[in-house]
Specification:
single chain, 464 residues, alpha/beta, five-stranded mixed sheet, four-stranded mixed sheet
Length: 464
């Protein structure tokens, strides 16, 4: 894979930023390349000089790598040069984009909300995203370092391992000394982790009685399981297909132990207890929500740019929460009866600063439930946690006690922890419920976790 015209244009922009005067550029060329700049490039203006250096000297003489390395040696702290140097090495090393995506997800911190990339992301997008990530404890290194190490240990990376190691050394000599060994002695790679397994349930008729199922992971291009014409009474059979998908990923060398299974559902199915699906493991009747973090998402919102924009505006408010008190201001816990009339709920939520709702009670009535969930989605709310309906008891005292208990648990989950960790806390609640028969609460949580920064491509969402 060769560099493109856009790559060369980008290099010119980076050089202009890294060396902002003719004198700086002249010194770099003299010190690092041993060449008189005036002899190979015009001195008309700095832009023309850089253009001549790249287009009339480096490209014709096949000296792009030497020029980039020289510039980085002269100005090792320049982030643009760092990124371009690594991009160039990876492009020229023969890696397929699918292989680079595996390195990407393996190096990205597990807690990162923006970890996923579009399926059509290029190498530059991928490298830039990694370079933007903060330093990690305890090594105090960027994911970009780990990414480069993984590339150097791969058989295809042996040819450029020396250059990548040198690149790492330019960034941080102490890190290079502590972590980088000769290519043949580097530690073996861990299995790349699958962060998300997406399950799309797409209606195939207007009455929403039959569905097409698509199961895939954005991290593994071309991996998809499709199931045609499932009736609504057969949706629980999804567990077998999800298990097939997870087993297939494990077979191909991926780690699925910490995978979140996310269901993209139409409004009618959002109340579905997907976390309670029994996984058909012989001798081990585990529920899906015990084995994995499970969230639901709105299929309708994923297909509607306007609704995505609304939820994006609210989701972005989370990044401004530096204390729990900031987060609590964006969260409300109440029974659905506090949001009447339901047909005006979306207006109220849209105008509010709320990001997260906790519903201690949702209606048993299908029409009311549908109106409630439509209001939440149309109002832009990206995070909602609710208790699925339970059988009403004849004893009003016991019923009141149970409702009060569930609301206390909701408040504890939403107000005492950072929201960013909510999927993991809900998973822990479900595990406790599975291990303690008397703890029914964990078996009734549904978590809407609709991250607008990660949506499937529209082609994946279509029924046809």
């Amino acid at each position: 894979m060769a560099l493109t015209i856009e790559d060369y244009r980008r290099l010119e922009e980076i050089l202009l930023d890294a060396f902002r005067t003719y004198s700086d550029l002249e010194q770099m060329v003299a010190h690092q390349l041993g060449i008189n700049l005036e002899a190979i490039a015009s001195r008309e203006n700095l832009g023309t000089t850089v253009f001549d250096l790249v287009q009339h000297w480096a490209i014709p003489k096949n000296k792009i790598k030497e020029l980039v390395t020289a510039a980085l040696n002269e100005n090792p702290g320049h982030e643009g040069l760092q990124q371009f140097c690594l991009s160039m090495l990876l492009i020229q090393s023969g890696f397929e984009l699918e292989e680079l995506l595996i390195f990407y997800y393996q190096s990205m911190p597990s807690y990162t909300v923006i970890a996923s990339l579009p399926l059509d992301a290029g190498v530059h997008h991928l490298i830039s995203r990694l370079a933007e990530m903060p330093l990690l404890e305890p090594e105090k290194k960027q994911p970009l370092y780990t990414f480069a190490l993984l590339a150097a240990t791969h058989p295809k990376g042996v040819a450029v391992a020396k250059e990548i190691n040198s690149w790492l050394g330019l960034l941080d000599p102490d890190y290079l000394h502590a972590h980088v060994e000769p290519a043949g002695n580097l530690p073996a790679q861990a299995k790349p982790k699958i962060n998300f397994l997406s399950v799309l349930v797409i209606p195939t008729d207007t009455a929403q009685t039959t569905y097409r199922i698509k199961i895939f992971s954005e991290q593994v291009p071309h991996f998809i399981i499709e199931v045609e014409d499932k009736k609504i009474t057969e949706i629980k059979d999804l567990a077998a297909f999800i298990l097939d998908a997870l087993n297939s990923l494990v077979y191909h060398g991926f780690d699925t132990r910490s995978t979140t299974v996310e269901f993209f559902l139409p409004f009618r199915l959002l109340p579905e207890a997907v976390d309670q699906y029994q996984m058909p493991i012989p001798g081990q009747p585990y529920k899906l929500g015990f084995l994995h973090r499970v969230t639901v998402r709105s299929l309708d919102r994923s297909q509607n740019p306007y609704l995505l924009l609304l939820s994006q505006e609210k989701w972005d408010r989370l990044s401004q929460c530096f204390q729990l008190t900031d987060q609590q201001r964006l969260t409300r816990v109440a029974p659905f009866t506090d949001f009447q009339p339901l047909d005006q709920l979306h207006y109220k939520l849209h105008e509010s600063e709320l990001v997260c709702l906790g519903l201690s009670l949702i209606p048993n009535n299908l029409e009311q439930s549908d109106n409630l969930l439509r209001g939440i989605i149309a109002g832009g709310i990206p995070i909602a946690l609710w208790i699925r309906p339970f059988e009403l008891m004849e004893d009003p005292i016991e019923l009141e006690r149970r409702c009060s208990l569930f609301e206390q648990r909701l408040r504890a989950l939403l107000f005492e922890h950072e929201l960013i960790h909510l999927p993991e806390h809900i998973h822990q609640e479900r595990c406790k419920a599975a291990l303690q028969d008397e703890d029914e609460c964990g078996n009734r949580f549904t978590l809407l976790w609709d991250d607008p920064t990660r949506v499937p491509r529209l082609s994946s969402l279509r029924a046809g």
